[in-house]
């Protein structure tokens, strides 16, 4: 379980609930291509409750991309929205679901130098 | 129309052409067919027998439709027209053009009609900054269509052009060889369809029907029918109101995720996209008229709310976006707009809009649906915006290459200055941001108590708001001038110029009652009030310039919120004086207020001098007359009732606003002009 994609979906399955997806109800099928084979993941969202299955099935939103691209999304190296605009990630069906789902991809790790200047301090008592 | 250019649009798809309907763009020339921030046609030139046409007239039928009357030849002296050419064009998923040629002679005529077509697929940012493209172009003839394409790795855009009549299609256009009988006519319909293709997708055979245009026409009529009606003695006010409604209709934008619902985009045509700040301010202005804009704004901005820390996008969890773009440079992360989060006012204003929306509409469901988003926004104020740990909202961009330096509404480089004109360093805490934060906490507390049933949060927010108000009135008050400083600098010193931001502070409610009178006197005083409206920066300040973007011009939108602020503190007549000045100015622009006009004294110029801007109409200028109607009539929801407390300038005479939608159903408001604004102006200072 060392690749970022599996780790991403497994961790989502373990959490079982994601408050950031409270607005989302619907199903996804991710089709991730690697060496001519398709790795399928099926996600059901119900107001924040998440079910993850490592298989295909009918879905409201179908997302197709290379497994390598998804690895980079799952590890925060790529931004999901820009990848869609670039056509690296192709979505069919309910777009809004994908807009909500992409919140789960981590951001690029911020540089410590910038972070120290740019906040996160609590208000003084 | 600007500089002889004609523009029509539907959402973020728009066509800018010359008055013949032709497009001949260069990389820096802003004509063309644009959609999702990409130019899909940069050449579209009609010739008859090899000759260009001349314009007789242009009819702007609707914002999405126009008609060009043309004759062969471009001579200006004498036109011996045996032929007329009519191009009627409407926008939607590209555009549809009905081309008609009339033969006025009593002999048949043989013609070669040619449409030269091409596309540079420029990103809007490239048009602005004249940058070179990195991908490859193609032109194919397939299934009776000319398909122009552009490809850069997986990024693919295409334009498909087809005609209803037989044409010889080559890679740079369509040619029709036709014969028209005596006094006969010939028609063809041309369709230009824009395509955005992902990896492995094929271009579909796309052909648009007329149904689109008809439904847009019906949609516009329904939009106007659904809005409240204005009856009044003042003809110009009627014109301005009507203009605002139609322009607001044109400014509606349906983001791909909004299920067909619309929110106000920022400006036409270059800013036809979601802007957090502009969409929220415009939704607030339009609430008593078209509350559904606010609902869509809240939902769409909630869907795109920041969820992680990303320096390139200036994104934090809970932050509301600044601007969304869809073009090539955004796709390849050469620009951060996917979306970009670099504004610090949109997030507190999001909570303000949610509360104000519920007060008007009683739509508690939306407040419950967006509870998580509103809580995250409130959390952002304390957790992420307080860069100095001093209990205020500060800003400093983390994206130093393509991020925004000033993340407040006055976002030009020199907008924030001390009296002597010096500019402070970063971070900066401008004053109005603290007002918005205060208002967000007070309103958030109400939502928490009444709708989310979280008393603990409500108590905490109220306590924090009271604490913020106390500190703000101490730390920002300029003692010797009796007004609030424009900002605090990074050392906590006051950036002490006198500015219009004081009006926004009244609107937010953060101002101590004892200080409000001095602010009202400043806002209507000779240094800030020009006679038309309140200047962004007071006369006499180091950087004051009556035609400086944020340092002396008068912004109608700014004034509408200042008027609201004055009413909030009981200064009815002062609010009426501002409404009168701005509405007088609107008359000079046929009811369409510009983004800004010069800060010259009214008695000096006699008419408002427009500040040159690329976009017209601008959403929050369009919303200004609507908010001024609200402030003049003193409309305020109170429980399930609408309170009406008019204070109208005498020049308005009798005013009725009929069928105001809200939690009360529909209600009418009446008022009569009794405020002598001339006296108000004479007594100022």
Keywords:
A: 125 residues; alpha+beta; Nonspecific Lipid-transfer Protein, Chain A; five-stranded mixed β-sheet; 5 helices; 5 strands; 32% helix; globular; B: 685 residues; Beta-galactosidase, Chain A, domain 5; Glycosyltransferase; 13-stranded antiparallel β-sheet; four-stranded antiparallel β-sheet; 19 helices; 25% strand
Written description of the protein model:
The complex is a heterodimer of chains A (125) and B (685). Chain A has 125 residues and is an alpha+beta fold. Chain A has a single domain, classed as 2-Layer Sandwich (Nonspecific Lipid-transfer Protein, Chain A). Chain A has helices at 4-15, 67-74, 80-86, 95-101, 112-117, and strands at residues 25-34, 37-46, 49-53, 61-66, 90-93. In chain A, helix 1 (4-15) packs across helix 2. The N and C termini of chain A lie far apart (45 Å). The model of chain A is unreliable at 112-125 (pLDDT under 50). Chain B contains 19 helices and 30 strands. In chain B, strand 29 (654-662) and strand 30 form a beta hairpin. The radius of gyration of chain B is 27 Å and the shape is globular. Chain B has 685 residues and is an alpha+beta fold. Chain B has two domains: 6-201 and 209-215, Beta-galactosidase, Chain A, domain 5; 227-682, Glycosyltransferase (Alpha/alpha barrel), CATH 1.50.10.10. The model of chain B is unreliable at 203-209 (pLDDT under 50). In chain B, helix 7 (346-361) runs antiparallel to helix 9.
CATH domain class of chain A: Alpha Beta
Q: Which class of the largest domain in chain B in CATH terms? A: Mainly Alpha
By CATH, the architecture of chain A is named: 2-Layer Sandwich
The tally of strands of chain A reads: 5
Please state the structural category of chain A.
Answer: alpha+beta
Instruction: Please work out how many helical segments of chain B DSSP would assign.
Output: 19
Cα-to-Cα separation, first versus last residue of chain A: 45 Å
CATH architecture of the largest domain in chain B: Alpha/alpha barrel
Coarse structural class of chain B: alpha+beta
- Kindly give the count of domains of chain B: 2
Largest interface: A-B, 39 and 48 residues
Main sheet of chain A? 5 strands, mixed
Helix content percent band of chain B: 25-40%
Strand content of chain B: 15-25%
Strand order of the largest sheet of chain A: 3-2-1-4-5
Rg on CA atoms of chain B, Å: 27 Å
Whole-number mean pLDDT of chain A: 86
């Amino acid at each position: 379980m060392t690749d970022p994609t599996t780790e991403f979906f497994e961790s989502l399955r373990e959490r079982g609930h994601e408050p950031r997806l409270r607005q989302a109800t619907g199903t996804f099928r991710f089709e991730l291509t690697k060496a001519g084979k398709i790795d399928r993941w099926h996600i059901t969202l119900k107001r924040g409750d998440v079910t993850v299955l490592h298989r295909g099935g009918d879905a409201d939103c179908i997302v197709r991309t290379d497994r390598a691209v998804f690895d980079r999304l799952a590890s925060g190296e790529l931004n999901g929205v820009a990848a869609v605009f670039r056509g690296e990630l192709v979505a069919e069906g309910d777009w809004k679901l994908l807009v909500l789902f992409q919140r789960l991809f981590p951001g690029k790790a911020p540089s410590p130098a910038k972070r120290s200047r740019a906040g996160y301090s609590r208000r003084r008592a | 129309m600007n500089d002889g250019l004609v523009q029509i649009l539907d959402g973020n798809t728009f066509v800018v052409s010359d008055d013949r309907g032709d497009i001949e763009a260069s990389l820096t020339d802003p004509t063309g067919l644009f959609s999702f921030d990409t130019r899909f046609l940069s050449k579209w030139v009609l010739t008859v027998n090899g000759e260009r046409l001349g314009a007789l007239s242009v009819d702007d039928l609707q914002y999405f439709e126009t008609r060009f009357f043309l004759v062969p030849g471009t001579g200006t002296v004498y036109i011996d027209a045996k032929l007329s050419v009519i191009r009627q064009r409407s926008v939607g998923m590209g555009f549809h053009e009905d081309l008609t040629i009339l033969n006025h002679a009593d002999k048949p005529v043989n013609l070669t009609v040619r449409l030269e077509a091409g596309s540079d697929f420029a990103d809007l940012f490239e048009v602005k900054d004249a940058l070179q493209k990195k991908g490859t172009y193609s032109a194919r003839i397939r299934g009776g269509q000319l398909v122009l394409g552009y490809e850069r790795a997986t990024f693919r855009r295409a334009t498909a052009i087809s005609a209803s009549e037989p044409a010889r299609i080559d890679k740079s256009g369509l040619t029709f060889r036709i014969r028209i009988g005596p006094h006969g006519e010939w028609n063809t319909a041309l369709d230009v369809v824009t395509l955005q293709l992902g990896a492995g997708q094929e271009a579909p055979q796309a052909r648009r029907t007329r149904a689109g245009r008809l439904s847009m026409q019906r949609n516009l009529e329904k939009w106007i029918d659904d809005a409240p009606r204005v009856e009044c003695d003042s003809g110009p006010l009627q014109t301005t109101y009507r203009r605002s409604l139609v322009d607001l209709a044109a400014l509606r934008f349906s983001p791909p995720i909004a299920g067909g619902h619309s929110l106000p985009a920022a400006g036409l045509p270059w800013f036809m996209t979601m802007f957090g700040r502009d969409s929220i301010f415009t939704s607030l202005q339009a609430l008593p008229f078209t509350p559904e804009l606010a609902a869509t704004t809240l939902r769409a901005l909630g869907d795109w709310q920041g969820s992680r820390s990303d320096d390139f996008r200036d994104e934090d969890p809970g932050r509301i976006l600044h601007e969304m773009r869809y073009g090539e440079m955004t796709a390849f992360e050469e620009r951060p707009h996917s979306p970009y989060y670099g504004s610090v006012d949109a997030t507190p204003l999001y909570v303000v809009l949610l509360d104000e929306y519920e007060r008007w509409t009683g739509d508690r469901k939306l407040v419950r649906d967006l509870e998580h988003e509103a809580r995250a926004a409130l959390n952002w104020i304390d957790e992420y915006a307080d860069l100095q740990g001093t209990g205020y909202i500060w800003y400093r961009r983390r994206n130093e290459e393509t991020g925004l330096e000033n993340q407040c509404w006055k976002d030009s480089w020199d907008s924030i200055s001390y009296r002597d004109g010096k500019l402070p360093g970063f971070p900066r805490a401008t004053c109005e941001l603290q007002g918005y934060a205060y208002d967000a906490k007070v309103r958030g507390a109400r939502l928490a108590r009444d709708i989310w049933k979280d008393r603990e949060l409500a108590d905490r927010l109220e306590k924090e708001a009271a604490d913020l108000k106390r500190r703000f009135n101490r730390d920002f008050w300029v003692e010797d001038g009796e007004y609030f400083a424009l900002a605090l600098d990074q050392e906590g010193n006051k950036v002490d110029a006198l500015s219009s931001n004081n009006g926004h502070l009244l609107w937010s409610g953060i101002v101590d009652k004892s200080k409000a009178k001095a602010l009202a006197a400043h806002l209507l005083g000779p240094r800030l009030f020009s006679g038309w409206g309140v200047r962004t920066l007071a006369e006499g300040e180091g950087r004051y310039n009556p035609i400086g973007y944020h340092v002396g011009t008068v912004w109608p939108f700014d004034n509408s919120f200042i008027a609201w602020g004055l009413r909030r503190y009981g200064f009815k007549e002062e609010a009426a004086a501002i409404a009168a000045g701005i509405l007088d100015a609107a008359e000079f622009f046929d009811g369409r207020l510009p983004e800004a006009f010069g800060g010259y004294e009214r008695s000096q110029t006699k008419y408002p001098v427009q500040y040159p801007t690329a976009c017209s109409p601008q959403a929050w200028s369009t919303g200004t007359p609507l908010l001024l109607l609200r402030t003049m009539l003193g409309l305020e929801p109170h429980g399930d009732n609408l309170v009406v407390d008019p204070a109208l300038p005498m020049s308005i005479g009798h005013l009725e606003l009929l069928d105001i939608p809200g939690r009360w159903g529909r209600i009418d408001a009446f008022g009569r002009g009794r405020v002598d604004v001339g006296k108000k102006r004479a007594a100022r200072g």
